[in-house]
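Contributing new records

If you add data, match the layout below exactly. Sequence lines come first and carry their own label; structure lines follow with theirs. Keep one chain per record. Anything else will be rejected by the validation script.
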Amino acid sequence: MFALVFLLVPLGIVIWGLVDASSHPAWAWDQARQNKTLWIVLQAVGVLFCFVGVILSIVYLAAIAPQVRAAERAFDLSSGPRGGPPPGWYPDPNWPGRVGYWDGSQWTGQVR
């Protein structure tokens, strides 16, 4: 039983790190000056090498993820991003359930 827990807990930490890393948009990673692909690959490959992935996942969850989350929170839906994402369709602050077009510096008024 102990051996099973000893294997499942680290695997759960790695899965948590992988899911968290993959859930953040690329622009938030760019704003945090971190590399999304690198952190996903390090955790995934690291699990093959005797718990190195667990250590990398813990580092990611403790140090890198908070930076990426902070960059993602800097995207204020009412005024737009502060140095935020590139032009594209994002949740519209004035129309819940719809998306609006952000042109890179302001909302255009286009919704769908």
